[in-house]
Amino acid sequence: EALRAEGVRGGIHGGCNRPLHQSKLFHDVDIYGHGQPTARVNWPATSDPLALTGELPVSAGVNARVLTVPWFKHFQPAIIDQYIEAFRKVTTQHRELLAADTQSKTDGIWFMPVKN
Description:
This protein has helices at 2-5, 24-27, 49-52, 57-61, 77-92, 94-100; strands spanning 13-14, 67-68. The chain is mainly α. Residues 110-116 have low confidence and may be disordered.
């Protein structure tokens, strides 16, 4: 919100890709046509490969601490300078902004489609 208030538009959101070890691609998708999710092919039917990854608190907590920014596909110094100044202003005031933040944490997103 603070960045948008400073004129930063499009492509800004909290979080990043979810941790790969929790991806449906690895645990729910039959990548190679075995008739079951690829992660289960060489495991006993009663096993849960997702549970076997264990806790990865750093990977799981990254989304609460990062911000995704838009790509700059073309060199536009005025726009880039505007973004730099907006980020500088917001990061300088981060303590005050965080104290007033009432929004819930983001869990991130995936930037790739999953076909069933």
